[in-house]
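Friendly challenge for the regulars: who can give me the structure tokens for this chain first? No prize, just bragging rights.
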Amino acid sequence: MKNFFSENLSSMTFVFSSIVLLNALLSFSQSVPWENASLSILKMAGLVLVLFFLGYVGSYLPFHSASAYHIFNITIQLIAGFALASLLGMFSINVENLIVNGFVYILLYYLTYRIRKHRFNQLAQAINEHLGKRE
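First reply, four minutes later:
Bragging rights claimed.
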């Protein structure tokens, strides 16, 4: 569990903050009513935690390519996310909600991927610089 949080906490924080900010902005503009915000925030936190845990578990499955992993991860998380959100009463399943929430999910997935890739590149560069100083 320690590995799960150490690997995913910053990404979960980014995703959760983005969703809360988006909901607050939509609620402020009166586009989407946000009743009982405290309970909604707790539900979103739980949903983000479950989806990241699914991604974490999926990362231990053998895939032949990174593309296969991402397609599997996106598919399983979208299905689980829509099912859980519907069960928790976060939104109803209809075409508009599927499109809007699917778009938001894919955008956040892509941004999280890019952030992680950037962090790994920074880490690799720091390691290479450190190894270069030792020689």
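The chain is about 80% helix and 0% strand. The radius of gyration is 18 Å. Your move, everyone else.
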